[in-house]
Amino acid sequence: MTLFLMRSKEQGMISDPHRPRYHFLPLANWMNDPNGLIQWGETFHLFYQYNPAGAYHRNIHWGHATSADLLYWQHQPIALAPTPGGPDADGCWSGCAVNDYGTPTLIYTGFRLPEEQTPCLAVSRDGLLTWQKWPEPIIPAPPADLDLLGFRDHTVWRENGRWAMLIGAGIRGQGGTVLLYRSDDLRRWEYGGPLVIGDAGQFDPVWTGTLWECPDFFSLNGDHALICSVWDRCPYYTIAMRGAYRDGRFTPSLTHKLDYGDAHFYAPQTMPLRDGRRIMFGWVMEGRSEAAVLAAGWAGVMSLPREVQVSSDGQVVALPIAEVTQLRGMERRMSPARIMPGALQWTPICGAHLELEVVLLPPSQGTCSVWLRASPDGAEATILRYNRATATLTLDRSRSSLSSDVWHDSHHAPLPLAPDEPLRLRIFLDGSLIEVFANDRRSITSRIYPSRPDSDGVALQVEGNPAELVMMRAWEMADIWA
Ligand code: DQQ
């Protein structure tokens, strides 16, 4: 009977039209942050925040999956579970993995109710499958001289023959921060002060909030990049800072949102690959009510693997790794055309699990839009709109779904284009997930939940002056679980 129930529950989830097919997610239940990303031998390891008991955030474990190519994944047994009475009794929160001279080592945040957060460590002796916890927290308490909001999430790297670590935090009355520690053995740490402190009173060019979660820090094209997730009142989002790192202090010269889908690209983590690339995954959180999530039985998806780069306008950008093209199946094309203002122009392209490449010369005045997951009568559609006058790319979710149980707000990315520069879009649709990359310099990641089975059309629309469609191709994408 139990087996029958389990089978029909899983079957229901597999046939759930909102479930992505070519992005990583567990078989069921709750997933949030990517953790412990590491290339070990020929294998990539992805750990993640996971609640095996259901599709809600509680009693967090570390789930585990492995891959040979970052595209196709094998589920592995749970890596870390809370230890009753231990510093992680109520959750094994986010952290990272390092290679400690041949020993795979995890550094993570032990969570104990009501809000105790302490750095913990675990090692594996069997190829990253099972993990033995260090008996004590590796840092007993946060620095006593700081009035902190949060003390959690870790990034660890080698520097000048020692280990260095950042822990996410916020200083009450000041702003988000990351605290620097140094160690010789990963078990005893010396506090080195805040690497940088944000100003929560400053709203320009982007508000950096009161608490920084999930820090990541690395050198990038001659300077350093610090990535932090801004936790505060909704919406959450991820910021990227570029600047100079000297003598244990970081001075940002540029700060911006990393992805303009806000909460839907959160807590990203990177890993350096042996081939020199730095790969990032982000947690793409749900955009529907808790009741809808519980009814679905699963929550949270990983973004596509992305390569961290510096865009042509100097921002940190994470773009799909080149290997993603291996997932492309049947191709459809649309001939170049002049798109006149007015009625919707339907394309022969349709589907819910697609990659699209669209190159458009936007009108000199007015807007051009790509309608995605659109029903034939246009009642449901997710509209990606570019407005040259405001230099804004908008992902309009106001009619993405007829359901009232889902988020309907829009996302806006600033995207100035040179006068004759086309708008070059790469769009990934995968059930309820959408990832948009524009001109290799902006991304918008989000969730949409069309309610109608015929909401799978693609159309173009122009308002104002005509626009030119230079190129449009689409591919049916592989099912990585098939
Ligand atoms: N998620 C983890 C925390 C982290 C937050 C808990 C970010 O460690 O700060 O699941 O989503």
TrEMBL record:
GO biological process: carbohydrate metabolic process
Alphabetized UniProt keyword annotations: Glycosidase, Hydrolase
Stated name of the protein: beta-fructofuranosidase
Residues in Glycosyl hydrolase family 32 N-terminal domain copies: 23-317
Molecular function GO labels: beta-fructofuranosidase activity
Family in the record: Belongs to the glycosyl hydrolase 32 family.
Keyword Hydrolase (UniProt): yes
EC number(s) given by UniProt: 3.2.1.26
Top EC category: hydrolase
Domain Glycosyl hydrolase family 32 C-terminal: 353-476
Record Gene3D superfamilies: Exo-inulinase, domain 1, Glycosyl hydrolase domain, family 43
